[in-house]
Design goal:
Elements lengths: L6 E5 L3 H11 L3 E8 L2 E8 L2 E6 L21 E4 L3 H10 L3 E9 L2 E7 L5 E7 L4
Parallel strand pairs: 1-4, 5-8
Antiparallel strand pairs: 2-3, 3-4, 6-7, 7-8
């Protein structure tokens, strides 16, 4: 049976701020505001990938936050055409990079913290020689 990536689901503290980040900074399109069970949320389209956001449900006990390393989900990787330009643009918008553009085999990458300390990796594939 084939498996294909369908969506990312993020639980956040400030839904409107997170929607703003994805739509205004990363150019995602807001599909709709919706409920996930009893929790307010939204679905967005980031160039063909669905990003679901929601706040905690009233009966959920939330522990930790994205600023702490944990087993399981680590970061979101986004492909860009030019990591250097994305780095300059996001730095000008006051996003904090903890790894500036760095070349690794066949790729240039950079890591920054988005809202609520979510970690985002920018990836620029390099042509193979």
């Amino acid at each position: 049976m084939p498996y294909r990536f369908h969506h990312v689901h993020i639980i956040c503290k400030d839904l409107e701020k997170m929607i703003g980040f994805f739509t205004e900074v990363l150019a995602a399109r807001l599909i709709d505001g919706r409920k996930f069970g009893t929790a307010d949320g939204a679905s967005l389209d980031l160039d063909g990938t669905t990003i679901n956001l929601r706040v905690a449900r009233e009966d959920e006990q939330m522990v930790g936050d994205a600023s702490q390393s944990t087993y399981g989900f680590d970061h979101i990787g986004l492909e860009v055409e030019d990591v250097e330009n994305a780095f300059k643009d996001l730095t000008a918008q006051v996003y904090s990079f903890f790894m500036p553009p760095t070349e690794i085999p066949n790729m240039k990458i950079a890591f920054f913290k988005g809202p609520e300390d979510i970690t985002i990796e920018l990836c620029q594939p390099l042509s193979k020689w």
